[in-house]
């Protein structure tokens, strides 16, 4: 005797690149549920874009399975990526080194005006 699953398998759709609302609807049509570990308020993340998913697109899973999705960070939420230190560091001084302080004549003007 062979056990047959009551829930037929479905292929996981490609959700990467879709906005949250579209990913949610695409998964629902396939009979899948979405879960976003980084966004517990998935329904409120309407315009965020999916950047990663598990299982991968095309995988066979039972209907009513959960697909995990992760979203791109919005502005101000730390989505700037890896920042490498600049080596060597820029020289200190910047404009202060190039320009005289207000009220002080530049040194080359003092040399030209002396008799």
* Helical content band: 10-25%
How much of the polypeptide forms β-strand, as a percent range?
A: 15-25%
Number of helices: 3
Strand order of the largest sheet: 2-5-3
Q: What is the molecular shape?
A: elongated
Show unreliable segments.
none
Query: What is the H/E string?
Result: EHEEEEHH
Distance between the termini: 114 Å
**Secondary structure tally: strands:** 5
Taking the sheet with the most strands, its summary is: 3 strands, mixed
Average pLDDT over all residues: 76
Could you write a compact summary of the structure shown?
18% of the residues lie in helices and 17% in strands. It has 115 residues and is of the alpha+beta class.
Write the layout of secondary structure elements.
Layout: E1 9-11, H1 20-29, E2 33-35, E3 50-54, E4 60-62, E5 66-71, H2 95-98, H3 107-113
Parallel strand pairs: 2-5
Antiparallel strand pairs: 1-4, 3-5
Feature tags:
three-stranded mixed beta sheet, 115 residues, elongated
């Amino acid at each position: 005797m062979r056990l047959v699953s009551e829930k037929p398998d479905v292929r996981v759709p490609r959700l990467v690149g879709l906005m949250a609302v579209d990913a949610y609807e695409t998964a629902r049509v396939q009979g899948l549920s979405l879960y976003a570990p980084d966004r517990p308020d998935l329904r409120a993340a309407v315009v965020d874009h999916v950047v990663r998913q598990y299982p991968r697109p095309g995988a066979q899973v039972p209907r009513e399975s959960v697909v995990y999705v992760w979203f791109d960070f919005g502005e101000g939420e730390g989505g700037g990526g890896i920042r490498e230190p600049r080596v060597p560091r820029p020289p200190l001084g910047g404009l202060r080194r190039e320009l005289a302080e207000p009220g002080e004549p530049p040194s080359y003007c003092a040399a030209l005006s002396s008799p």
